[in-house]
Amino acid sequence: MTGTPALAYVMGHNERERRRLALQAAILNPLTEQLLCRAGLAPGMSVLDLGCGVGDVSMIAARLTGPGGKVTGLDVDEPALAIARKRALEQSLTNITFMQANVLDSVPGTPVDAVVGRHILGHTPEPLVLLKAVFTALKPGGIAVFQEYDFSVLHPAYPPAPLRDRIAEVFRDFFLRASRGNVGTQLYHLAIEAGFHSVECRAEYSILGGADSPYYEWYAESVRSILPRAEALGVLRASEIDIDTLAERLRKEAVANGSGCPAPVMIGCVASKPPPTASFEA
User: Fold this and answer.
1) Is the whole model's pTM more than 0.85, yes or no?
2) For the chain, what are the domain ranges?
3) Are strands 70-75 and 261-262 parallel, antiparallel or unpaired?
4) Per-residue pLDDT tens for 57-93?
5) What's the pLDDT score for residue 2?
């Protein structure tokens, strides 16, 4: 993948962003585990996790593939990888290796059984280029599994929660301008274009509420991560949001109304690389 444009992660690489990823994982990991199970990750498989961050998807894959499996997590953020290594050690997951690398320039020397990625293509200048490289990295019959948001789809809270819905609009406007904010809905087409077959995509998301949910802090920390760039793009003003009190105001609003608050729409895609003797039509 050498020579492809640099990956542009719009959320940044710092301690608060790593904590935001941990909050996000508390909500998304059950959906990711279900997707990887549905895709067929099984004991003994070799797996490459692109943009592994603090290691959540890698660790799910490691548990599914077992001691006989091998998982390699790639990310550019070395401090995040240090956290991932520590977490894997604490959970006695000895079948994971974490490596610092730009995913656009890192194809394994030996083809793998599966390549997975959560929220990586939306930050990639040329998703099709990356998916074609994923295709090359897979063994014949191997599987690619990706999860990506589509921020262009807005599901309001019910009963209405105006502050939460305003934040959802901020995410829509920002990510559609600053990254590929609707790449989730593009996954089926991109996978077909990259040469995959048996492509299956499914949209899903959690609807959360109650006083103890991590949802509110996750939303607030997500706004904090994008705030400087969102202001520069004219999406919002910091004075409008009052970032330091945002999580608690979101919580109070939802609890007072008994609101169910939808997370952003996320599309899970499972695609297979054809065996060498097979012939498939898109």
Assistant:
1) yes
2) 15-272
3) unpaired
4) 999 999 999 999 999 999 998 999 999 999 999 999 9
5) 36
Determine the Cα–Cα distance for residues 64 and 178; give it in Å rounded to an integer.
34
Q: What six digits make up the tokens of 52?
A: 């592994």
Residue 50: C-alpha distances to residues 79, 171, 211 (Å): 16, 23, 34
CATH topology (fold) of 15-272 = Rossmann fold (3.40.50)
Helix axes 56-65, 15-39, angle to 10 degrees: 30
Alpha helices in the chain (DSSP H): 15-39, 56-65, 78-90, 127-137, 162-178, 183-193, 215-232, 238-241, 243-257
Nearest-5° angle of CA 99, CA 105, CA 108? Answer: 60
SS3 assignment, position 216: helix
CA distance 31 to 169: 23
Q: What is the DSSP letter of 260?
A: B
Contact of 27 with 40, CB cutoff 8 Å: no
Identify whether 156 is preceded by a cis peptide bond (ω within 30 of 0): no
Beta pairing, strands 96-100 & 112-118: unpaired
- Between CA 282 and CA 198 the distance in angstroms is 9
Nearest-angstrom CA–CA distance, 35 and 210: 26
Which 3 state secondary structure label does DSSP give 103?
Answer: helix
Phi, psi of 277 (to 5 degrees): -95, -5
Neighbours of 268 (CB within 10 A): 23
Q: At what angle do helices 183-193 and 127-137 cross, to 10 degrees?
A: 50
Residue the block writes with tokens 């640099």: 6
Burial class (CB in 10 A: 0-12, 13-18, 19+), 120: buried
- As a dihedral over the C-alpha atoms of residue 146, residue 137, residue 79, residue 36, rounded to 10 degrees, the angle is 30
Token code pair at residue 108:
């394994």
